[in-house]
Design goal:
about 425 residues, alpha/beta, D-Maltodextrin-Binding Protein, domain 2, 2 domains, 4-stranded mixed β-sheet, two-stranded antiparallel sheet, about 70% helix, elongated
Amino acid sequence: MDKIWLIIKREYLIRVKKKSFVVMTILGPILMAALIITPTLLTMQDQQDRVIAISGNQLDFLEPLNDIENTHFSIIPQEEIEALKQDFSNTNYYALLDFENENFIIYSDQQISLSIKRSISRKIEKVIERKKLKKAGINLKILEESITKIKIQTKIVNVDGESINSSTEASMGIGFITGILIYFFIFMYGTMVMRGVIEEKTNRIVEVIISSVKPFQLMMGKIIGVALVGLSQFTLWIVLTVIISAIAEIFLLNPSDIINEANSINNAKVLVQVNELIGGINLIQIGSCFFFYFLSGYLMYSSLFAAVGSAVDAEADTQQFVLPITIPLILAIMLIQPVMDNPDGSLAFWLSIIPFTSPVIMMVRLPFGVESWELVISMLSITVSFILSTYLAAKIYRTGILMYGKKTTYKELWKWLTYKG
């Protein structure tokens, strides 16, 4: 155990002291925030006003067309239509909407975006529909007054018979984000273990280390050491995110607004709304399960990644072995949406029980509520799988770590697994 601890300490300190770790730990929250905010800001700044011309003679029945966000409609005389069809360069028009042979045609000197095309189609359909209804003698005012929009509020009834506010949207958001994070961390830190094994094997450092410790001790030390690096970085990301958010709030908010009573009331309303959104979600359970599935999923997959690293001489040779390992993770990501649509279905249940997909899928299901026995079975399943995968990976590791210059095949791996020496 002392030797494993020394390896854990070595693996942890080597990676934590790297400049790349410090840089990514600091930039991680900033990059994540930028990834979320930047596209929205760019989209808002990229919006531009577009004017679409309409024939005054042929399309006079479309005069009620309303503007669509940044798209405006302008009726022009018929004599300008033909000239506009030939040349848009000296005009301010983005496109021309015309009606020919009972078909609507959009002319432009550039490719029309799909969103604008669909928006125009919906607008025209609505205008024509209203004219047909009016022609049929239907009072449009009564029809408009009959249109009713409702807001459905959801509540969860607990075992004590109490109803708690809930939000499907919040559950989907939390499930999606936690599932993606689990996938990201498992893949990132698992491949880190594999690269570390390949690097030590290529540099022949492992030959010196193996003379003092057993291959299993070396593998477990590397896996646990990198796990601690991941937990440290993730914890620092959370702390830095909170600090950055607090600093941003201080500098972005007007001090006079902070002490303003009206603003306090608004903040209270926001807190009430947030509480209503997450009222039916057990955040403590989700947080604790996140760390459990991150650690268990990482330990299981990293043992397999370590076995792959020991079986090859270069990272370029890992593809044939890494793909079968990562397919379950990729499948889990692809099935997130079907699972969120039916979190209690048989597909969601079995994917959250199967250990190779459970770290992602169970985190997706948890915000919707999961029976305790299902959670226990899932945890036991992934724990047993971790022990089994570590045992099998160790058999490959102890042989492959000292193999050089030979192309490893699946047949060769099977021999290492079944070797009883």
